[in-house]
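Weekly sync, protein design subgroup
Attendees: M.S., D.O., the rotation student, P.L. (late)

Item 1: inverse folding check
M.S. brought a backbone from last month's batch and wanted to see whether the design step gives back something sensible before we order anything. D.O. pointed out we never logged the input encoding, so this time it goes straight into the notes. Structure tokens as presented (286 positions):
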């Protein structure tokens, strides 16, 4: 399993068109010695002996394996930490230049902690909860800023995030989306292209070439970009759901549920921030 941060690499999918396989052999062309270029589910240590790829998953009979309850509890703890951090920041920090600086600092610390966790081979609850706390401070300040200009925007963004998450889960559970290796590769290519374009746009804005935020303006073009970003967030949610499903089915260790919680939290934060911008854009155009 890996985190679902849209700027992070994805693992857990074989290089054919099938679902992620825990018993699939490493594919030719994978960089030897690079742990992030190999299929982490190859030669699955959790699968029972004799179980072949494509066969119904049989989780080992042990109590030290990840369950849906584990994922739910740890996701609730991680998201709860984000919410507590956001509420405290909103309540204690007025909308000033100092609070904006604190928000930026918190976002940088959260990003660093997330990157450290992403490149660790094992989940660290301290890193994950530390990320959640600093991310919560950032979200609290940003949400208060939006609310001061567009009253009620954070509440609408929360509802929008919940709606997108519920709709994505419904579509996934109904089988309308098949999370295959090809699906993941195409989606990741689109996501990386989006991030590159956004990075270039940011540089153009910083150097004064693009005015009013460029592609991230509070106008129709900015709304279109925001919708694309939210769709990408929904795409990453489907990868999260697939990895959680596979982890449970194939008996991943219980501590892997922290990675599931981490991935879901990062993706939901992404969707919330984009939803917040979208609400503000539509409010401006009313």
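Designed sequence read out in the meeting:
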């Amino acid at each position: 399993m890996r985190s679902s941060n849209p700027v992070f690499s994805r693992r857990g999918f074989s290089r054919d068109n099938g679902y992620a396989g825990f018993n699939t052999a490493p594919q030719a062309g994978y960089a030897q010695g690079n742990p992030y270029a190999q299929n982490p589910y190859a030669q699955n240590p959790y699968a029972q002996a004799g179980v072949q790829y494509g066969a119904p998953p049989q989780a080992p009979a042990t109590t030290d394996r990840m369950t849906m309850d584990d994922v739910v509890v740890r996701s609730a703890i991680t998201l709860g930490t984000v919410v507590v951090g956001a509420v405290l920041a909103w309540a204690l920090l007025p909308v000033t230049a100092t609070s904006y600086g604190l928000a930026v600092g918190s976002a940088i610390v959260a990003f660093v902690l997330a990157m450290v966790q992403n490149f660790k081979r094992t989940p660290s609850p301290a890193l994950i909860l530390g990320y959640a706390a600093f991310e919560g401070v950032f979200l609290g300040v940003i949400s208060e800023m939006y609310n001061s200009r567009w009253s009620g925007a954070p509440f609408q963004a929360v509802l929008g995030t919940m709606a997108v998450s519920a709709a994505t889960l419904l579509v996934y559970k109904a089988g309308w989306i098949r999370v295959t290796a090809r699906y993941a590769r195409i989606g990741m290519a689109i996501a990386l292209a989006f991030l590159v374009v956004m990075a270039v746009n940011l540089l153009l804005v910083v150097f004064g070439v693009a005015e009013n935020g460029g592609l991230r303006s509070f106008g129709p073009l900015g709304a279109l970009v925001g919708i694309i970003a939210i769709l990408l967030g929904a795409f990453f949610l489907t990868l999260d759901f697939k990895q959680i499903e596979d982890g449970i089915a194939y008996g991943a260790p219980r501590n892997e549920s922290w990675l599931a919680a981490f991935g879901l939290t990062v993706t939901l934060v992404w969707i919330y921030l984009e939803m917040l911008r979208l609400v503000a854009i539509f409010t401006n155009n009313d």
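Discussion: The longest helix spans residues 220-249. Residues 15 and 103 are 40 Å apart (CA to CA).
Action: P.L. to compare against the previous round before Friday.
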